[in-house]
Amino acid sequence: MGNRPLDILNNALNTPVIVRLKGAREFRGNLQGYDVHMNLVLEEAEELREGETRKLGTVIIRGDNVVYVSP
């Protein structure tokens, strides 16, 4: 285990995470993959917005929009 951001993402693979994007959008889902640009693949993803949840399935999130990832 390391303290680099990608090591933390690697430890979070196949577990539920919450991803906050620019513009205050949030997604919850199981982290299935990522790359060095912080592009993320979430399965069973849901968008969390104003107390409502919208199921989306599998989504790809561009890393330049990511504010944080919380395992």
UniProtKB/TrEMBL annotation:
KW Ribonucleoprotein (keyword) present: yes
Domain Sm per the UniProt entry, residue ranges: 4-71
Keywords: Ribonucleoprotein
GO molecular function, one term: RNA binding
Keyword Oxidoreductase found: no
PROSITE patterns: SM (PS52002)
GO cellular-component term (any): ribonucleoprotein complex
A Pfam family per the record: LSM
Domain of life the protein comes from: Archaea
HAMAP family in the cross-refs: Lsm_RuxX (MF_00257)
Family listed: Belongs to the snRNP Sm proteins family.
Protein name: Putative snRNP Sm-like protein
Originating species: Methanomethylovorans hollandica (strain DSM 15978 / NBRC 107637 / DMS1)
